[in-house]
Recover the amino acids of this structure.
């Protein structure tokens, strides 16, 4: 390559680099405008003190979940109508007795479904209940209801949701529950528990007759759903005693990691308490066994109680983007928590909003009560 | 097999593998949540930051390659690696306009992959020239 060509390439590269330096994206400009402050407003300070005086905060990571013995929330001999989690035998019997029952595989992608699914099951892809455009929150109700109507699911259709990932299954189950499907249940465990119970999977695609009328003004259970960060602020204003509880891993709570490739910053919503549930950003190992079945919650609930998270409180659970907290929601509901909700936006949305308006969406970094703790407003 | 042909073979194998990886990435994207969300996040950031530079960059690259090959042709005959380089530059320009973030979230991976393929091809063409010398 002669000298002239080399200079041309150098010149072009220099132009490219200069253009790259002039980034004008909102992400860059808003991150530069973030301010750090440890000043608390008097109202926030007194509320923080009130919470601090009531509860203790975990200061170290809990022991690994692998040290916990296997235990079960579900008692196969005593599954009640009001329970959310059911075992494979219950599901098999229900399929035989109730032809209206729709079994749903909740998953991202169709690879696992195509390899083999519970006979008669329909697939609801998680990208049909959420999207990047909705900040990974549940789609608006009018779009969400179509996802279920297309599978023949209305308010009166009993459904049982399962999946290879218990959190994906609970995510889809919660979407149906929030809309107002009367009878939503979740298979207690991953797909493998079906085969473990002695039943076969199928690769046949079931015939689906789409429905046109959901049968109710949806969403029916909007009181159990706090969608966006602004909805959370409104909920806290309406009920100052509302506990905002992170069910993320301890490292996420302690601000050591965001937990996600696509979330740039670590931290938590300011004022959040921590409820032991996740060991990493992709699991709920403290409330689920290795096979995905839900543990007897006694151990985690004892810890929750130490940290002020009790059944008499109004609580909203959140995580990164709204998957893990739905599993916790259903477990807590079955364990007797009454006044609970799912906060969908989670750390993903709150962090994005914090970058643009730190004052309105303050964050905390580190564990409250430790030397590393700070609030950013 | 001459040294030039061996290098050509190796570079075509590498390019072929890269194309295969890009093709399989679509399948991986469709079935792995974390990968999908990460790619979407990065695609959106890339599109916001550099999206308006893609067309000028692809045009400039094609222009430079045309000038390079024109000047090379004046001194010696072009080899097949040179024609493949030119073809890839045209394809890169065309596909960079077909691919866009809203339609193909993996587009920034394809763009970078395409650029790597052109770089490998250019290196081969340049090495071929050196070997001929």
């Amino acid at each position: 390559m002669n000298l002239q060509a080399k200079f041309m390439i150098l010149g072009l590269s220099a132009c490219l680099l200069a253009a790259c330096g002039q980034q004008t994206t909102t992400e860059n400009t808003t991150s530069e405008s973030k301010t750090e402050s440890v000043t608390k407003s008097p109202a926030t300070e007194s509320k923080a003190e009130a919470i601090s005086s009531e509860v203790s905060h975990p200061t170290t990571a809990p022991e690994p979940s692998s040290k916990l013995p296997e235990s079960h929330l579900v008692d196969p001999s005593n599954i009640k109508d009001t329970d959310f989690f059911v075992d494979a035998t219950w599901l098999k019997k229900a399929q035989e007795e109730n032809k209206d029952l729709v079994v749903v595989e909740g998953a991202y992608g169709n690879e696992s479904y195509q390899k083999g699914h519970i006979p008669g099951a329909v697939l609801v892809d998680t990208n049909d209940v959420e999207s990047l455009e909705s900040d990974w929150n549940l789609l608006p109700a009018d779009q969400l209801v179509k996802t279920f109507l297309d599978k023949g699911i209305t308010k009166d259709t009993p459904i049982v949701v399962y999946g290879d990932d218990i959190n994906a299954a609970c995510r889809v189950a919660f979407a149906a529950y929030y809309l107002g499907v009367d009878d939503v249940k979740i298979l207690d465990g991953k797909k493998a528990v079906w085969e473990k119970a002695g039943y076969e999977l199928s690769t046949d695609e079931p015939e689906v007759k789409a429905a046109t009328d959901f049968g109710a003004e949806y969403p029916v259970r909007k009181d159990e759903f706090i969608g966006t960060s602004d909805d959370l602020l409104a909920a806290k204003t309406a009920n100052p005693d509302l506990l905002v509880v992170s069910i993320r891993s301890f490292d996420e709570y302690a601000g050591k990691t965001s937990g996600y490739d696509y979330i740039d910053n670590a931290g938590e919503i300011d004022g959040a308490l921590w409820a032991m549930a996740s060991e990493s950003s992709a699991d709920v190992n403290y409330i689920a066994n290795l096979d995905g079945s839900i543990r007897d919650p006694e151990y985690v609930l004892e810890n929750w109680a130490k940290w002020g998270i009790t059944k008499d409180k109004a609580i909203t659970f959140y995580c990164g983007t709204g998957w893990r907290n739905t599993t916790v929601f259903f477990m807590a509901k079955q364990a007797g928590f009454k006044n609970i909700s799912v906060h969908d936006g989670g750390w993903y949305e709150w962090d994005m909003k914090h970058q643009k308006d730190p004052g309105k969406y303050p964050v905390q970094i580190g564990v409250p009560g430790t030397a590393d703790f700070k609030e950013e407003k | 097999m001459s040294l030039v042909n061996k290098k050509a073979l190796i570079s075509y194998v590498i390019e072929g593998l890269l194309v295969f990886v890009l093709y399989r990435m679509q399948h991986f994207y469709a079935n792995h949540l974390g990968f999908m969300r990460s790619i979407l996040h990065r695609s959106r950031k890339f599109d916001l930051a550099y999206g308006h530079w893609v067309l000028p960059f692809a045009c400039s690259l094609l222009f430079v390659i045309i000038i390079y090959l024109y000047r090379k042709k004046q001194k010696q005959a072009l080899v097949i690696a040179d024609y493949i380089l030119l073809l890839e530059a045209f394809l890169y320009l065309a596909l960079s306009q077909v691919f866009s973030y809203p339609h193909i979230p993996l587009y920034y991976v394809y763009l970078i992959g395409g650029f790597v393929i052109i770089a490998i091809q250019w290196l081969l063409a340049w090495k071929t020239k050196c070997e001929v010398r």
